[in-house]
């Protein structure tokens, strides 16, 4: 079965690509391959995560996760970091 060029992708298309090590984002049905973040991004991300972890821990508000982690905003707007997929609960 051929797929048209104007086809909107959804989260199941990302799941079907699981295990290939690439990072994907799905924005309004468009499937994008995203490069790995650079060192500056990683430094800023690490500093921000430390501050968020302290804030959430002190107030017992929940958990802070770093990437890669699937984030599903809608069925056609998601991110997948390329790591091993866990179970949603």
Keywords:
89 residues, alpha+beta, 4-stranded antiparallel β-sheet, 2 helices, 4 strands, 20% strand, elongated, disordered C terminus
Structural summary, described in words:
30% of the residues lie in helices and 20% in strands. It is an alpha+beta fold. The protein has one domain. Strands 2-1-4-3 form a 4-stranded antiparallel beta sheet. A hairpin with a 2-residue loop joins β3 and β4. The longest helix has 21 residues. The chain is elongated, with a radius of gyration of 16 Å.
Secondary-structure blueprint of this entry?
Layout (H helix, E strand, L loop, with lengths): L10 H6 L6 E5 L2 E5 L4 H21 L11 E4 L2 E4 L9
Antiparallel strand pairs: 1-2, 1-4, 3-4
What is the structure about, briefly put?
It contains 2 helices and 4 strands. It has helices at 11-16, 39-59; strands at 23-27, 30-34, 71-74, 77-80.
Mean pLDDT: 79
What is the strand tally? 4
In sequence order, what are the helices and strands, one letter per element? HEEHEE
What is the subunit arrangement here? single chain
Helical fraction equals 25-40%
Integer-rounded radius of gyration: 16 Å
General form: elongated
Give the end-to-end Cα distance, rounded to a whole number of Å: 33 Å
Q: pLDDT under 50 segments (min length 5)? A: 83-89
- H/I helix tally: 2
Count of spatially separate domains: 1
Strand order within the widest beta sheet: 2-1-4-3
- Report strand %: 15-25%
The biggest beta sheet reads: 4 strands, antiparallel
Structural class of the helix and strand makeup?
alpha+beta
């Amino acid at each position: 079965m051929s797929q048209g060029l104007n086809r909107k992708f959804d989260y199941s298309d990302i799941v079907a690509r699981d295990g290939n090590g690439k990072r994907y984002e799905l924005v309004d049905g468009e499937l994008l391959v995203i490069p790995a973040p650079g060192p500056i991004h990683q430094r800023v991300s690490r500093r921000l995560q430390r501050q968020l972890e302290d804030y959430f821990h002190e107030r017992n508000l929940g958990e802070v996760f770093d990437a890669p982690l699937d984030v599903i905003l809608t069925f056609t707007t998601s991110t997948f970091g390329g790591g091993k997929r866990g179970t949603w609960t």
